[in-house]
Design goal:
Layout (H helix, E strand, L loop, with lengths): L3 H4 L5 H14 L5 E2 L11 H12 L12 H15 L8 E4 L1 H13 L5 E6 L3 H9 L3 E6 L8 H5 L6 E7 L11 H14 L2 E5 L19 H4 L2 E6 L12 E4 L2 H14 L5 H11 L3 H23 L14 E5 L1 H6 L4 H12 L1 E2 L1 E2 L8 E5 L4 H15 L1
Parallel strand pairs: 1-10, 3-4, 3-5, 5-6, 6-7
Antiparallel strand pairs: 2-8, 7-8, 9-12, 11-12
Helix pairs in contact: 3-11, 4-11, 5-6, 5-10, 12-15
The structure holds pyridoxal-5'-phosphate.
Length: 385
């Protein structure tokens, strides 16, 4: 009855795990949920206020499918100021989170016969979306510390390679691609005429390192790059569903046509709230990073001391990616099993590496309170013993 395309589609492991945990929590079970990919902070008050104002003023109708001018202009200014990329508002499209923008860009660029290079471990959404577009995902396996280099990509480039997907800082590893390697990747893409989709949703969550946007290097790479970003993580706005893409006008226009037939654009109210988010005082961002860094330092130091577990220091995002292979050989067959028993015995919920094409690993989110992180570390320590 259902189409082959849909029958082959894998559900988002992180979203379904998170939903399962939330259901158990609602039923009264006390769980430490480290599966979540969203900040535990409240959406800042000025953003909420702008949303309420939009409702009160009746700004509650369809907007242009590519988003309101005011927000596209504000994002263009943000790109210039923070990422050193000059985009016209017409080179920017707003959508239902970065996720829809990624779906849209794969639909617009890829078809049967094309290959997309995806560094592994990866967020599984890319893989499913590439397949939905009829193209073939080609995995680029990375070893700890999971930092992509141009050399890793070069040997996989063929005539059919259409896109290279980069995600820096990375979900799930927290790794940041070094600037020198980003430059080499840019040169490679230009030389071979391959598009880059650069997912930068964790750009603000960097601890002691600087974030670089590949499209900023020069005009040649800019004309091949689609930069993806979101309000979800930076402004704790996951539920507002605002993401955006910026790139060559031809690609953005095609994405707008797709939106016009599939979504009619995203929420008018959320778009007004997003304008307020861009205008938010920088102290909000500074405080958020300070808090995440404190948690990152604690979690890295605590797990580094647990025998059988190893990890590289996450440079960005809000995930710790634990190598538990040593523990598997002794007791459990897979990280899937390990995570399941961990949950049964300790009520700490985590995501197994299988969800990121990385068996033998476990992803813990530290976008939860410091108190919960401390308690989770204590329980995992006991469990491993
Ligand atoms: N890109 C990465 C790497 C993510 O981890 C996520 C969310 O988990 C997204 C994109 C999607 O974010 P949004 O809420 O904007 O759809």
């Amino acid at each position: 009855m259902l189409s082959k395309r849909i029958l082959q589609l894998k559900p988002s492991a992180t979203l379904s795990l998170d939903a399962k945990v939330k259901q158990l929590q609602e039923a009264g079970m006390s769980i430490i949920n480290l599966t979540v990919g969203e900040p535990d902070f409240e959406t800042p008050a000025p953003i909420k206020k702008a949303g309420i104002k939009a409702i009160k003023e009746g700004f509650t109708h369809y907007t242009p499918a590519a988003g309101i001018k005011e927000l596209r202009q504000a994002i263009a200014e943000k790109f210039l100021k923070e990422n050193k990329i000059f985009y016209q508002p017409s080179e920017i499209i707003i959508g239902i989170g970065a996720k829809q923008m990624l779906y849209s860009v794969f639909q617009v660029l890829c078809q049967k016969g094309d290959e997309v290079l995806i560094p592994i471990p990866t967020w599984s959404t890319y893989v499913e979306q590439v397949k939905l577009a009829g193209a073939k995902p080609v995995f680029i396996p990375l070893k700890p510390p999971f930092k992509l280099t141009a050399g890793d990509l070069e040997k996989h480039i063929l005539e059919k390679t259409k896109v290279i997907l980069i995600n820096t800082p990375s979900n799930p590893t927290g790794a940041i691609i070094e600037k020198t390697e980003l430059e080499k990747i840019a040169n490679l893409a230009v030389k071979k005429n391959i598009f880059i989709i650069s997912d930068e949703v964790y750009e603000k969550m960097v601890y002691g390192k600087k974030h670089y946007s590949i499209a900023a290097f020069d005009e040649n790479i800019k004309r091949l790059t689609i930069t993806i970003n979101s309000f979800s993580k930076t402004y704790a706005m996951t539920g507002w569903r605002i993401g955006y893409a910026a790139g060559p006008k031809k690609v953005i226009d095609a994405m707008a046509v797709l939106s016009s037939q599939v979504t009619s654009g995203t929420s008018s109210i959320s778009q007004k709230a997003a304008v307020a988010a861009i205008g938010l005082h920088q102290t909000y961002i500074k405080n958020m990073i300070k808090e995440f860094k404190k948690r990152r330092d604690f979690i890295y130091s605590a797990f580094s001391k647990i025998k059988g577990i190893s990890l590289t220091e996450p440079e960005g995002a809000f995930y710790a990616f634990l190598d538990i292979k040593e523990l598997l050989s002794k007791t459990y067959l897979s990280s899937n099993d390990w995570v399941e028993v961990l949950f049964e015995k300790t009520k700490v919920a985590a995501v197994p590496g299988e969800a990121f094409y990385a068996p033998g690993y476990v992803r813990l989110s530290y976008a939860v309170s410091f108190k919960e992180i401390k308690e989770a570390v204590k329980r995992i320590k006991e469990f491993v013993k």
